Amino acid sequence: MTSILCVGNFGTGKKEQIDVAELLCYLCRNANCKLILGLGNNIYPDGVTSVNDNQFLEKFEIPYSVLPNNIKFYQILGNKDYHMKSSVRSQINYHKSGKSFRWIMPFNFYCFTKKFEGVPVEFIALDTNLDKMKNRVSQEKWAINSLYESKARWRIVFGHHPWTAFGIDGKKKHTSDELDTFYKKLVDTGKVDLIISGHENSQQHIYIPERPDMLISGVGGYKHKEEDVEAQILLAKELQFKSLETGCVKIDVFRDYLLVEFYNTDKQILYTFKIKKV
Questions:
Q1: Mean pLDDT (the chain, rounded)
Q2: How far apart are the first and last CA of the chain?
Q3: How many C-beta atoms surround the C-beta of residue 254 within 10 A?
Q4: What distance in Å separates the CA atoms of residue 96 and residue 92, rounded to the nearest whole number?
């Protein structure tokens, strides 16, 4: 198994989520997929009240029941998941309770390593809701140390909020100063190969010199409307690709490169590129 799927903003229970679930199922059965990175906003509109909240069934278990049983979602928290005070702890406890074999979230930040045909990849799962976190200082120290200590061939950082994104006017949207500083510290380790995010209701590939490639996949649950996306790409030289179509990102892992493909729910590849490593 060589592929990773990435999808965010998915927990709506709407038809769009079902359509993306069918796409994920198609890719899992036809592209040797190993796991899914869930990029936050797991349960719309406000998160959950407890581990017994029926929304876990309606907006996660049932929509993704079509997936092969070996496919797990490695989840992080989005801003919607913080709306209710009980939601964060409930989402972590949903994993710890054993109620779901598919929902993985041991803490609000964590890391894990998987091998893809013998190639080790370390995943650093972040909580980017820094303004709401009580343990953000601990996360920063942990993340930096984890990157320095990593011996994996590839290191992928994923969190809900992007470092950089491009909005409806084609202009760069800046994150908070605190999150900007956090991402800079991580990248300054020299150990980050790729940053993946959700939050924005679009799919984007952003390349800024002296930074890792950045992917956004935030169209897993509903469709957003904007005007003239092609013009936005022309206006923003760092924006390599943008789409508003519902879908996901697939990443194939090889020793010397990552092959990235953006899909829509018609199972079409909208855009593809490689990230190479010597």
A1: 95
A2: 22
A3: 16
A4: 7
Instruction: Measure Cα distances from 17 to 37, 43, 190, 216 in Å.
Output: 15, 11, 36, 17
- What band does 228 get if pLDDT is binned at 50, 70 and 90? low
- Residue 37: which region, alpha, beta or left (left: phi > 0; alpha: psi -120 to 50)? beta
Dihedrals phi, psi of 120, to nearest 5 degrees: -80, 135
Q: At what angle do helices 177-187 and 136-149 cross, to 10 degrees?
A: 20
Prediction pTM value: 0.96
Q: Are 124 and 158 in contact (CB under 8 A)?
A: yes
Class of the 3-276 domain?
alpha beta
| 155 contacts 188 by C-beta, under 8 angstroms | no
| Residue 229 pLDDT > 70 | no
Per-domain residue ranges for the chain?
A: 3-276
